[in-house]
Amino acid sequence: MDWFESLMGFREKGYAATQNLLELDGDRLRSTVNGAEYGIGTLELVSLAELRARAGVGDGKPRAVLAREALVIDRLEPRQVI
Hints:
Layout: H1 3-8, H2 15-20, E1 22-25, E2 28-31, E3 37-39, H3 48-55, H4 67-74
Antiparallel strand pairs: 1-2, 2-3
């Protein structure tokens, strides 16, 4: 059993067949096989400078970042990860 089957209750069988066993309701993805549902969102890949600019930290120019600073930035907009 792979991760997808463990979550959705069925094996992926190709795009169309898999899509037919899933329902999308706003920001929720639901398996019609086992009823499991999960929040979904948009994957966004941004630079550290962009993260700093959004957080209002520093001038947006590249510099060394301590791990504790990265954790603070990560906590600004928590997301559910599945």
